[in-house]
Amino acid sequence: MPPPRRPLSKRLLVACLLPVLLAGGAVAGKAWLEGDEVRARVMARARPALESRLGPVRLGEEFHVGWTGTVTLGPLEVPGTRPEGPPVVRIEHITVRPRWRALLAGRIEVGRVVLSEVMIEAGPSGRELRALVQRMRAPRPASVPAASSGSGGAWPEVVVEDLHLAFERRGRVEWGPLSARVRREDVDGIPGLEAKAGLPGGGHAELSLRKAESGITGTLQVREVPAGSVLSLAEPPWTMEGGILEAEARVDGREATFSLAVKGLALRDARLAPEPVGPLAFSAEGRARWELERRHAKLESLRVAVGERREAGVEVTGEADWKQAPRFSLRAELRPLTFEQALAALPPSLVPDQELAKLEGHFQGTLTVAGPVARREEWEVKAKLDVSKRKASDPPGPLAWLRAPFDYRPLTAEGRGRELHIGPGNPRYVPSAELPRVLVRAVLRSEDAAFWVHRGFDFDSLSTLLLKPPDDKVRGGSTLTQQLAKNLFLSREKTYARKVKEAYLTLGLESSLSKERMLEVYFNIIEWGPGIYGIGEAARHYFGKDARELSIRESAFLATIIPNPVRYHVYCTRGELSEVWKKNVDRLLGVLHEGGDITFTEYQEALDAPLPFACGDSEAQATEEQTSVE
Fold first, then answer.
1. Domain-by-domain residue ranges, the chain?
2. Model pTM greater than 0.90?
3. Three-state secondary-structure class, residue 134
4. Nearest Cα to Cα of residue 159 among 178, 138, 144, 174
5. Which stretches make up the Glycosyl transferase family domain (predicted)?
6. What is the pLDDT of residues 17-37, one digit of tens each?
7. CA of 71: how far to CAs of 22, 65, 92, 99, 149, in Å?
8. Which CATH number fits domain 400-628: 3.40.190.10, 1.10.3810.10, 3.30.559.30, 1.20.1250.20?
9. How far is it, in rounded angstroms, from Cα 433 to Cα 445?
């Protein structure tokens, strides 16, 4: 017979029942907390607190209380200024976690706020986001209490998860996902803010701010960020790929130092170059100061370097004030740079095929720009470029062959054309000393009035075309040296890469050749019509005479067709000028007279002189060319 069982003690019974009672109480409490009454009370406090900061908001029906006391609301939408547009901010979930120590002490304090699945629509040019910031900075009505973290407690930590930013300029660009953690951290009673962020595609950023007597102090560090995706937010005209960006900024009251470095970046666009341009490397570092009460800021120094080894460098200084209409002034100085350093600073796709790195000498320059920020046409621009000239004692460079007779095959749409001899061995060749003076003056007045004084680039004319275009269309202009570089070495592709190559070749020509030799080569190789190269062929084709015998009006006509000689050959085929082109020729004659290149009598005679074209009057060809002109 088994012994009788001992009855359960009261202590064991309580130990068994207590967890059940606690669990039941927790379930009942959680059910009560998620009930309509508590939800209504929470919403009644949350909505006014949000609207006091953000303006009108839409708060969804989600309301959930977690087992650890967290409260989740959502979704939250902050409408933008456009009724038909998306909300400027949408937060799918807002989770609030209390501080347990404060809760056990009878106080309600928010320890952490987690914002999940956040979308920010900045709007066209950021207008929607700026409007939201202005609403947040506006004074709150006295009847609406400010939102707080609790009864005198510390500020809560804010965590953002899966944040996306959308920008609108030429199109819509979305950047994300981004995560961030922000918390307030006071040191010795001085309030401060610490923030860390994980950026899209990798990389991170850290921000530390403190409030001091001199103002805000702090640092911002950005490390190992994909450069292409970040720089693409500015919606440049080309695609940016790859690369790493690192940056750092330090603010101390009224001054700041900053640095930026990008390496391994590639640019892709058909207008830039047929192939990707890269890898690019550049950096910048500088110091700035400001006095907000005087509405004045000064860029004390900015050094921009290009190249893996920072071969090319530009020093920039400037000032700005906004006491009335905002004004600015900038000065940039290109340090002395050898041709070898200049070419090493650029990626291979921007380097000409010619061996310019073997050129002796260097170049340097300065640029100053000043004026009212909003009125481009009133900006004052001054630029200066110095290019060292080759000395007789210098060894021959890669462009020395241009100083002697040479053979040249012009580049056409079908490839290289027939071979031309540029020298006395060609009966159509005209040496510079034998070119008609009026022809030279007409071409220079029409194409490059400052040829004899500039060093390859006419910055005065260029600034006028860029800042004060007569028809409000920004365009560029090429000097004779630039045109010569293009005709001698480059294809006809219209890309920015070709313009960069052209600039380097222009510097090489200015360093290697005299002005007289450049002018002589120019007149004897440029295209003057379909398959017509050199002034000797042009004079014989258009007027049946030697170039040395061209009249003033004939010279003026030939100068006016240089921008597109194939297109304007129609006038020769047809045997007469249109009224529009007759006015162009007469206008150039007036410029020659006003500039002292021809006398008044010569001007009057040239206005009435005929143009005895000698290239035939094929009706079919004339009709085809006229259609092209129209």
1. 25-133+155-198, 400-628
2. no
3. helix
4. 178
5. 426-578
6. 555 554 454 444 445 455 566
7. 21, 5, 14, 12, 14
8. 1.10.3810.10
9. 19
